[in-house]
Amino acid sequence: MSENPKDTAVTTPAKSDGTKATAAGGATLTKDAADGDVLLKVTGLQKHFPIKKGLLQRQVGAVHAVDGIDFEVRRGETLGVVGESGCGKSTMGRLITRLLEPTGGRIEFEGRDITHLGVGGMRPLRRDVQMIFQDPYSSLNPRHTIGTIVGAPFRLQGVEPEGGIKKEVQRLLSVVGLNPEHYNRYPHEFSGGQRQRIGIARALALNPKLVVADEPVSALDVSIQAQVVNLLDDLQQELGLTYVIIAHDLSVVRHVSDRIAVMYLGKIVELADRDQLYKSPMHPYTKALLSAVPIPDPSRKSARSERILLKGDVPSPISPPSGCRFHTRCWKATEICRTTEPPLAELRPGQRVACHHPENFADQQPQDTVLLSAAKEAAELVSDEVLAQSAETSAAVAAELEGPAEPASGESVSKSAGSAESSSESGESVSKTARSASEATEPASKSTEPVSKSVSKPTEPVSKSVSKSTEPASESAEPASESAESASAEPASVDVSKTDRREAAGETGRQESAEESDGQESTDK
Ligand SMILES: Nc1ncnc2c1ncn2[C@@H]1O[C@H](COP(=O)(O)OP(=O)(O)OP(=O)(O)O)[C@@H](O)[C@H]1O
Description:
It contains 22 helices and twelve strands. It is of the alpha/beta class. GO terms for molecular function: ATP binding; ATP hydrolysis activity.
């Protein structure tokens, strides 16, 4: 069945009680939601699915589907959740709608702890928290009419809308752009997009405060996806809804979200405002995800080489890697990434990231320079341009934030500023800033500890990119001589190739802790 062309136009008729179906605030609510106006707060949320074996069904392990996540959702906003398949997005959605019982952590809805509410306790809450499911083909009972499906929440909650259930269901059908006359039809008589609209009508029936949509459009054709996404958008404006939208399609998430949480193997690795995240991602995983989004612009040939190919699959959530879970696929991973889990820290206002060596920001563990063997392999899949750019921005931000005399530190860094953004905006401005960065780091490299640090990733590809530059000779000549001059006294500017850099890093490691380094590589393998 083809889509009804009228479907795209969303009109919200008056409610049966005569009031206009517009929640206070509507569109402005999304923009102006105060920080303190938190609808949902999640702290340390965990879900471990037990693995049982044998006749006695003894537990032999657990799938760490969601493993300690913290976030909040403000009233009227849309939080997008992205990540690779199996990272725990759907499990998280089912936990916050309390379709699953959490193993640990806390869920607060409107300030009330709902973590372990029983069926009775949850009943009133079901009106306020609704879920839209991924597959519109299997989420509707084929033996029930649309009227029965959309009217079910009223019957289950014992709610009698003014004018009766039928009238209210027909109103809801027209809200989502379906013909109210189709009340008596069955799901198989509708197209995928229309079925998803039925699912949305059912979710909206009780006028919820929070709607969790799990991959709401991934099962639909691209043309229909846009219609459903726009419908969700319009409904939010008109009804003042708050959304958590789970998706793996970054372009969909970008379109609908105010803030975005990036999940990896049961953890949130980055949480930021949408524009900030797309403009200046800080977690290497976010950067890799964003680099995989196709750019529909043939004039941007360089976009291909900026693509980051991640090595291998996501590790098993049954025994996730130690430390930072991304360290087995990260091209920046050092020993500390293997041993110590980075906290989700607010490095920039509104941007939280869990990484020891963030992108577009000062290195949080600059003393840790020896790449893990897995990181060396992963770096082979990352283009020189990406490595150079990453190091340049880190060095530039470090210099801007720390000043010439102090080494980078997490604390001072967190007092950050938007200055980091400017450094990532354009290659030209970046290299200029990077040059001033390498100048600014001079005094730092004179102190004893940061000597090895100054050989590290942030600074050295600065000169590498400079030497590779095909830009005007005057541009490249100046820093090249800078690096040549300072090579002996200032390792920060040592000009090394990709392979040399690793050797240099390995050398440093051997000097610093040969045994540790050996142990680490064998463990890593
Ligand atoms: N009921 C369950 N019992 C055991 N393991 C489960 C269960 N549900 C999910 N898992 C496991 O938990 C992990 C996270 O699954 P989840 O469906 O939340 O991932 P996802 O990010 O939503 O993936 P996708 O995008 O493919 O839907 C997976 O490894 C999955 O196999």
